[in-house]
Design a protein that fits this description.
Helices cover about 10% and strands about 10% of the residues. It is low in regular secondary structure and about 55 residues long.
Length: about 55
């Protein structure tokens, strides 16, 4: 299966994620949203603590 990671020039680049991903039509896909750990009010939780944000 070919997965194309989309990272347009001039946008932030990070090896942990891509700005977009293109999959073949027959692929199964699961989407998980969120790049920040936020509480129910939308406030960033534990800004400098990745483990706490993940939890």
């Amino acid at each position: 299966m070919t997965i194309e990671r989309l990272n347009p020039e001039g946008m932030h680049s990070n090896s942990a994620y891509s700005q977009g991903v293109s999959l073949p039509p027959s692929a199964r896909i699961v989407l998980v949203g969120g790049q920040n750990g936020v509480d129910a009010q939308g406030r960033i939780v534990a800004r400098d603590d990745l483990a706490a944000q993940t939890a």
